[in-house]
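Why should sequence recovery work at all? Because a backbone constrains its sequence more than one might expect. Tight turns favour small or flexible residues, buried strands favour hydrophobic ones, and helices have their own preferences. The token representation captures these environments compactly. In the example below, the structure is given first.
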């Protein structure tokens, strides 16, 4: 069964954490809830107001449309009633005789009616034999009379033109005129009823204009059937509809029961040609108006009334009302876009919403300020509490340090472990350390270093000014260094690489220790989250440490200490002959190719750098720059052997009689290569992707291959130098104990640890820091 492990921070009080979260939730939640409630209330009010205003406006639109219906009905009645009464009166006047006998009376009466009733276009009389007379308006207020004498034969069609005074000004025959009044709807309709008959809208034969006719029948004393008709054009009715202002783009039309258009605001849309080429009136769906078509379709299904239709994502208010005054099944159809009724409502709601948004923004800003002020108050309270706790901890720490005054005794040689532990505990630092400047300020030696996670102490580590020139420069000026990322700050990049990276630390706080007018050491804190509240404590500790360091006895130079510290036991020597014999090689047979004291340097690059692709010819990769630098350094320092193999560079010297200069040469070359590579990598803001290893010892070399033969070097020194490069820290030079023994008088080394060599066992390794 799997058991889940959980990491618990025992330094935090769960109840306190829960209380803090609850308080923060209240600080943030209440203002946000208030703003959200305000938004919901505003939206609800806006929605209610919009619906209420909408229903009110639509109710007002019903009243408006009802008023328009009544107005149109009155106008149509006023337009059609006079011609109907004129037909009835004229019928009573001319019914006593035939057309020929009553022709002067018809002309006189027709001329008078045309002047008095402008909507009458023609006055016509026809009998059952096809005889016909028509009176219509002529040019310059005159009249035109069309006379058809069908009986007795032959048929004659005569046009008589009179001026405004009634005098005849012209007469002509029209033999091509085939008009037969008996085939017209006004004649056939009136012949079947004793009442005034209204035709549907149709196109007049003579004028080719749309109109309708009011007609009535009568019989002369001899019993012959006559029909009297008054033609009424629809132009005036269309002009009346166009004069109606129904909001901004609303329109009204008059239709009959079959869907034919009687009148429109644009009267020219009525006339159409049928399949036979004859002119006829258009239907509603032939006007090309989707809104009118949709309103008519609803009317055919639901009848008269008011309703809202939606066409092409746009809503229209429609009304269809009957026109009883017309004497037929006529209706008026009105269509108005809904937004024209609701426009001011929408605009008002939009303005109100914008004002509400402004109020919400102000409320949100006030809520944000309230949240910010509350969180700041909580944060200040926590900071005050943390400060009080820190002061209590620091007071306890000062009391503990005061109890052990020997920590600051310059004659005491024991590492100040209690001091570093106290520093780490008060500041929560990952590692706390105390350093002393020695050798005239060229060496920084670790008095004691305490790692809080492991609880371990380390002392004796030395850093040379050549390794950390910028850090030493700022430290010597007495500057405090506080960086959150030591690898990103040029002052501390080398410190991070040499000291902090192996532990994984990032932040560094370094306080110089002043001894009079000069800096005698430093106090370091790595990854210390509590530094901000404990800087005064750290500075106080640095001042106390200054007492210990300022009164310390003068130390011997580093070279003398190294000599004094050198072991008295005889130096362990490698059994090179045994090494060769163990591999089945007779040294006597290869004596000319065995070099007993060769100094070998191996530079190892990571795979990504060694395999980097070459950019365009105008640029060089960093690997190419390094290779060029290696060749230049080898040429200037006269390195006899330099070979680049894959991701490694092998250099060697000391093939002649051993004189100790080979190790010195390769150490200088290694430091030069290290410094050059560090500069390149820092300039390119890249990780340190190289390691260098050095060893001195036995190597085997000789020419191999056919012409041309190639000199190859191998053996224990080459393998050991390669191991040093593979296991070293990035950006450092790792040397074996053999190199250390030869160069310790001239170079500064830092102990690294032990390393296992086959056939030899464990041997110490060192980091080559620089020349003394």
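From this structural description, the recovered sequence reads:
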């Amino acid at each position: 069964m799997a058991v889940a492990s959980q990491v618990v921070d025992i330094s935090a009080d769960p109840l306190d954490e829960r209380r803090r979260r609850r308080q923060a939730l209240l600080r943030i939640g209440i203002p946000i809830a208030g703003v959200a409630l305000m938004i919901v209330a505003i939206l609800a009010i806006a929605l209610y107001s919009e619906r209420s205003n909408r229903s009110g406006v639509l109710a007002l639109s019903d009243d408006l449309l009802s008023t328009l219906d009544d107005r149109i009905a009155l106008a149509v009645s006023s337009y059609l009633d006079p011609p109907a009464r004129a037909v009835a009166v004229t019928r009573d006047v001319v019914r006593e005789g035939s057309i020929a006998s009553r022709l002067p009376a018809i002309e006189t009466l027709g001329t008078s009616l045309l002047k008095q009733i402008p909507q009458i276009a023609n006055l016509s009389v026809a009998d059952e034999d096809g005889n016909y007379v028509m009176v219509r308006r002529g040019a310059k207020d005159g009249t035109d009379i069309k006379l058809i004498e069908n009986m007795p034969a032959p048929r004659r069609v005569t046009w008589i033109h009179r001026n405004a005074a009634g005098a005849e000004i012209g007469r002509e025959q029209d033999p091509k005129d085939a008009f037969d009044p008996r085939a017209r709807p006004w004649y056939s309709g009136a012949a079947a009823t004793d009442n005034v008959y209204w035709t549907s809208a149709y196109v007049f034969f003579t004028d080719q204009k749309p109109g309708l006719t009011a007609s009535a029948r009568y019989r002369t004393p001899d019993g012959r059937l006559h029909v009297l008709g008054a033609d009424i054009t629809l132009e005036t009715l269309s002009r009346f509809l166009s004069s109606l202002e129904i909001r901004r783009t609303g329109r009204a039309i008059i239709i009959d029961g079959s869907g034919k258009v009687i009148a429109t605001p644009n009267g020219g849309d009525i006339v159409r040609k049928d399949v036979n080429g004859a002119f006829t009136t258009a239907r509603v769906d032939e006007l090309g108006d989707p809104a009118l078509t949709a309103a008519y379709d609803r009317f055919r299904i639901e009848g008269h009334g008011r309703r809202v239709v939606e066409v092409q994502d746009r809503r229209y208010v429609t009304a269809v009302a009957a026109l009883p005054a017309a004497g037929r099944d006529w209706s008026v159809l009105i269509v108005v876009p809904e937004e024209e009724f609701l426009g001011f409502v929408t605009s008002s709601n939009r303005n109100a919403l914008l004002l509400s948004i402004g109020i919400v923004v102000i409320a949100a800003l006030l809520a944000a300020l309230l949240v910010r002020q509350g969180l700041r108050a909580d944060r200040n309270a926590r900071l005050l509490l943390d400060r009080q706790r820190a002061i209590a901890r620091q007071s306890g720490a000062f009391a503990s340090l005061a109890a052990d005054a020997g920590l600051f005794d310059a004659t005491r040689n024991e590492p100040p472990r209690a001091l570093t532990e106290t520093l780490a505990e008060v500041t929560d630092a990952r590692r706390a350390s105390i350093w002393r400047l020695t050798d005239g300020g060229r060496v920084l030696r670790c008095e004691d270093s305490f790692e809080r996670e492991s609880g371990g102490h380390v002392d004796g580590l030395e850093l040379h000014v050549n390794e950390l020139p910028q850090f030493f420069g700022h430290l010597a000026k007495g500057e405090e260094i506080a960086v959150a990322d030591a690898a990103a700050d040029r002052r501390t990049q080398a410190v991070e690489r040499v000291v902090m990276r192996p532990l994984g630390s990032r932040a560094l706080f370094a306080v110089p220790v002043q001894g009079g007018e000069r800096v005698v050491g430093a106090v370091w804190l790595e990854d210390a989250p509590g530094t901000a509240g404990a800087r005064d404590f750290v500075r106080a500790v640095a001042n106390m440490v200054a007492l210990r360091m300022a009164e310390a006895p003068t130390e011997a130079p580093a070279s003398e200490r190294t000599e004094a510290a050198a072991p008295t036991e005889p130096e362990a020597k490698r059994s090179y002959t045994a090494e060769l014999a163990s591999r089945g090689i007779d040294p006597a047979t290869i004596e000319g190719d065995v070099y007993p004291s060769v100094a070998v340097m191996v530079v190892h690059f990571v795979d990504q750098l060694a395999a980097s692709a070459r950019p365009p010819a105008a640029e060089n990769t960093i690997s190419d720059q390094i290779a060029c630098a290696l060749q230049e350094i080898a040429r200037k320092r006269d390195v006899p052997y330099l070979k680049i193999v894959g991701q490694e560079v092998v250099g060697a010297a000391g093939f002649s009689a051993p004189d100790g200069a080979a190790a010195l040469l390769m150490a200088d070359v290694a430091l030069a290569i290290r410094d050059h590579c560090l500069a390149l990598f820092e300039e390119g803001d890249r990780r340190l992707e190289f390691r260098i290893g050095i060893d001195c010892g036995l190597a085997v070399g000789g020419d191999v291959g056919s012409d041309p033969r190639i000199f190859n070097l191998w053996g224990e020194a080459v393998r050991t130098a390669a191991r040093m490069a593979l296991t070293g820290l990035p950006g450092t030079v790792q040397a074996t104990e053999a190199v250390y023994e030869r160069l310790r008088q001239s170079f500064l080394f830092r102990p690294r640890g032990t390393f296992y060599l086959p056939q030899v066992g464990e041997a110490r390794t060192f980091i080559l820091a620089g020349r003394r």
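A few observations help interpret the result. The radius of gyration is 58 Å.
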